[in-house]
Every structure is written in structure tokens, then in C-alpha cells.
Amino acid sequence: MSGSRRAGLRRLAALTATLCGLALVACTPSEHRTVTVLGPWIPSEKEQGEQESFQAIIDRFQEQNPGILVNYTGTRDADAVLASELGSGKPPDLAVLANPGRLEEYAMAGALVPIEAALDDSQLREQYDEKWLELMRATSPSGAKGYYAILVKAASKSLIWYNPAALPAEYSQLLTPDLTWPELTTMTSELSKGADPWCLGLADSSNSGWPGTDWIEDIVLHQSGPLVYDQWADSQLSWTSPQIKSAWQAWGKLIDVSAARPEEIENWLLTSYREAGWPLFDKPAGCFLEHAASFVTNSYADYESATGVPRPGTDFTFAPFPPSTGSLIVGGDLLGMFRDTPAAREFIAYLTTSEAQAIWTARPGSGAISVNKQVSLDNYPDELSRDLAASLLAASEPRFDASDSMPQVMASAFHHAVLAYLDNPAQLDAILRQLDEVRQPR
């Protein structure tokens, strides 16, 4: 079926549902089975953007369930819209949550509906390892743990990206799972004698600073381990503790922030995170390495060049963040239920399946990774995507992004602290003390 025909059928179904609600046409029970979904994915200029990919999943579901109409609303302000709709008592049936911190807050407040009734636990365990199921759980108002969301798609954040054609061969050979932090520090120092060693861009509208928090989080996890990371993410460990302070210092030393020129720092602060890695593909390269999540491949695809779009595996590839310990940081789109209806249950159950998730992961340039182990690696569009998925699935101790897991006020303070540190690294002690003033142990 063509895209225009599917779009026409969707418009007809939506019109029929509206007329049915107004009693202008005869209604059957199936015409009342509508699922409303709110999310952050909006139309893209590219043919296979995030909303287009999610719509492809919706289309397949509706083909198999003609009695259910899924109405998706996409907005970059999904978190604010969700809060407003909850306040008015008219939430969507399902919504993509801003982060795991919001998942926990909504679950503890009783705003989210537990989704165990929508899922077959035995089937779920056939498709997902326990380490991923744990990331879909949250705490109920009574203190019990349960399923409150599904992980629609995931991203690996513990990655270093580079252009094999631009990076001198002796350094490319070091970028393996055996890479150590001292080796990375030495490599950075030697590369600084040419172009900028690191591509850095921290600007993202009101969320500026988060690419820097990703750095601190990876250093804490890989140098101090999952236990310390969990205590810190849960606000049990102070920001002034030796493990956390040393992570800031390690990052500052790596990028040589104390010696950076004012115009260089200004460039870091004002460059969009989406464009930060584009100099990897300039001739000559403007920078050599980028610390970024797996979804950075979408940004690379936006680089404009006379020679065309950078090719995965040829013009860009990745190495794991050092030291490689089996722990890595995960980002993910969590979808929860705010209104419990049979149709909403059916759709959320479908989204957990390998069939649904394979639709998204198969689309070139989507950057989506499924943690459903029944999604074949052969389903991914290129070797680089397959390698990304394999490395994520192989993680022994995945952890959600720490700032995403923190209360919103703490995460916001963390973002701003990164910007303040780059602007004046000598004030690190004062910055960490200020973060401790915001910290509220759970």
C-alpha cells in the first residue's frame, strides 16, 4: 500500500471517529477504540525521520487491528504538554516520557498506570534480558516495583566517534575495546599539535550543557564503577566526593580546559550538539574525535558536502569509551500508560514485540537500537548499525543516563554547572558545593 493511500485511510478513519463522537454517523463499538499517544517525535525533512518511523509502526498495527485507530501527536515540548494535560485531567492514553526520572516521579505520584496487565510476563522474558526489564520498572505509591513503561528504542552513549580517513593510522589502531584512559589522554595531547582533538558542542536551547554531563557520567561509571554511579545518580553520594570531583578533573585535563582560549570556550558553548561533529568530515579535518551517543549518526547524515553524505563504517565509526568494562550508559524512549483502556493495552503490548521494533531499526539513518533480543542483527541497515546494536546488547551492566535519572531540578543544575565549569574551571570546588545544595537524597 502506498504512503499516500495509507495517509488517506488514516484521515478517513480520524474523520469517521470524529463524526461518530458527534453522533453524525452510525457508530459501531470498534469505532470507539481510539488510542491517543503523545511523544517528542516530529516530522522530519528527511523521509525516514523519527515520527515517520513511528508512524510506520502505527500503520502496521492498524493493518492488523482495523478496529483500533492510533492518534499520535508529536511535539518537542512533549513533557510540558503532558504536564499540562495531566493538570487538566485529560492526559493521553500513552505518552513517551522525557526521561527515567520523570517515569519514577509519575509512577510514585500515581499518575501512571502499571502495565503488567497489558503484558505477558513469560513472553516478555523470552524477548528481553532481565537487565533491560529492570530499566522498564519504577516504584509505585506503595513502594512496590513494577512495570510502568516499555523501552521503545534505545541508544548507547558510551562511545567515541572518529573518521578513519582523517585520523592518523597509529591512533585508529588504538581505538579498540582495549583502549585505556591514559592512552586516550596521551592521544589527545599529541593530536592537539594539529587540529582540535575533540569536537565539542554543548548548545541545545534550554537544555544546553547535557553533552558535557554525558562526559562526566561516562567517566564516573568507567572509572569508579556501577555502585558509585548508582549512588550518585540516586543523590546518595555528594558532588564533592572524591570520585565525582575526580571525574570533572579528568574531563578538564583531557580537553585541557584550563589552557583553552576564550574564543575556543565560546565556540564550545555556542556550537549546537548536532553540528559539533561535522568538522570530522572537513578537508582537512577540524577535529578528530567526538564523544556522542549512537543517535549522532542522524547528525552526521545532515552534514552537507559536495561528495555527499558521510558513509557509516567508511567516513565514521566508533570505539567504546575506555576502559571497556561491560558497563555502559543507555539513553532510551520510555512509553508509559496514563489511561488504561483495552485498545491502549493492545498497542503497548504490540510495541514490545520484535515485529514492531524491527520496523524502526530497519530504516536507514534511524539510529534506533532495539534491546529486544529477538530482533535479528541482520535487520539493521548496515554493518555499523549492527555493531552498535551488538555492543549495546552485550553490555553486562547497562545504566540509564544519570542526569536523566535525577530529579528535574538537579538535572537542570547539572547542565548549568557544566557550562559554568568550562567558562571558569578554577571555580570547580564552588560549583560542586552549589550542586550539593540542590541535591536531595531520596
Structure description:
The protein has 2 domains: 33-156 and 331-400, Periplasmic binding protein-like II (D-Maltodextrin-Binding Protein, domain 2), CATH 3.40.190.10; 159-329 and 401-438, D-Maltodextrin-Binding Protein, domain 2 (3-Layer(aba) Sandwich), CATH 3.40.190. It contains 19 helices and 12 strands. It has helices spanning 3-21, 50-64, 78-87, 100-108, 121-127, 130-133, 169-172, 181-191, 210-224, 226-233, 242-255, 262-270, 296-300, 342-351, 354-361, 383-393, 402-405, 408-423, 428-438; strands at 34-39, 69-74, 94-97, 137-139, 145-147, 149-156, 159-162, 196-198, 287-291, 317-320, 327-337, 397-400. Strands 1, 2, 3, 6, 11 and 12 form a 6-stranded mixed beta sheet that branches. Strand 1 (34-39), helix 2 and strand 2 form a beta-alpha-beta unit.
Q: Average pLDDT across residues?
A: 90
Count of helices? 19
Radius of gyration: 23 Å
CATH architecture descriptor text of the largest domain:
3-Layer(aba) Sandwich
Give the helix proportion (percent range): 40-55%
Per the principal axes of the C-alpha atoms, what is the gross shape? globular
**Which homologous superfamily in CATH is the superfamily of the largest domain?**
Periplasmic binding protein-like II
Tally of extended strands?
Answer: 12
Task: Profile the largest sheet.
Answer: 6 strands, mixed
End-to-end separation in angstroms reads 52 Å
Residues in β-strands, percent = 5-15%
Q: Which CATH class of the largest domain is shown? A: Alpha Beta
Helix/strand class? alpha/beta
Low-pLDDT segments: 1-30
In the CATH scheme, what's the topology name of the largest domain? D-Maltodextrin-Binding Protein, domain 2
* Count of folded domains: 2
